[in-house]
């Protein structure tokens, strides 16, 4: 399965990583590793996670309080649309969906 990212996701990941690096050296890298691991889990079994509306699904990360919003495009493309903190306003990033 091919994985695509919405252009804004790169900026979100960079900001999250920088925040965690300021908290503790190496923690930003651990966040990225955990994020990548979760994306691979999603790609392996994309229909496992909660459907929010239409074809948008949400997966909660294990260690960090973030959600990954994604959709399947066809049978072989996974598009990550939003990465956001679980306490962010529910409407954050909705314009990308």
Which architecture would the CATH scheme give at its second level? 2-Layer Sandwich
Query: What Rg do the Cα atoms give?
Result: 13 Å
Helix and strand run = EHHEEEE
Helix content: 25-40%
Category by helix and strand content? alpha+beta
CATH fold-level label: YaeB-like fold
Please provide a written account of the structure:
The protein is of the alpha+beta class and 97 residues long. Helix 1 runs antiparallel to helix 2. The two termini are 20 Å apart. Helix content is 36%, strand content 31%. It contains two helices and five strands. The protein has a five-stranded mixed beta sheet with strand order 1-5-4-3-2. A hairpin with a 5-residue loop joins strand 3 and strand 4.
Topology:
Layout: E1 2-5, H1 7-23, H2 27-44, E2 50-53, E3 56-60, E4 66-73, E5 77-85
Parallel strand pairs: 1-5
Antiparallel strand pairs: 2-3, 3-4, 4-5
Quick structural summary:
With 97 residues, the chain is α+β, with helices and mostly antiparallel strands.
Question: Keywords, please?
Answer:
YaeB-like fold, 5-stranded mixed β-sheet
């Amino acid at each position: 399965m091919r994985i695509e990212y919405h252009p804004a996701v790169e900026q979100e990941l960079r900001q999250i990583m920088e925040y965690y690096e300021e908290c503790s050296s190496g923690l930003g890298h651990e966040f990225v590793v955990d994020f990548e691991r979760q994306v691979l889990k999603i790609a392996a079994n994309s229909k496992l996670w909660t459907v929010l509306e239409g074809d948008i699904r949400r997966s909660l990360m294990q260690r960090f309080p973030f959600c990954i919003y994604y959709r399947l495009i066809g049978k072989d493309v996974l598009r990550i649309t939003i990465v956001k903190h679980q306490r962010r306003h529910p409407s954050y990033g909705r314009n990308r969906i």
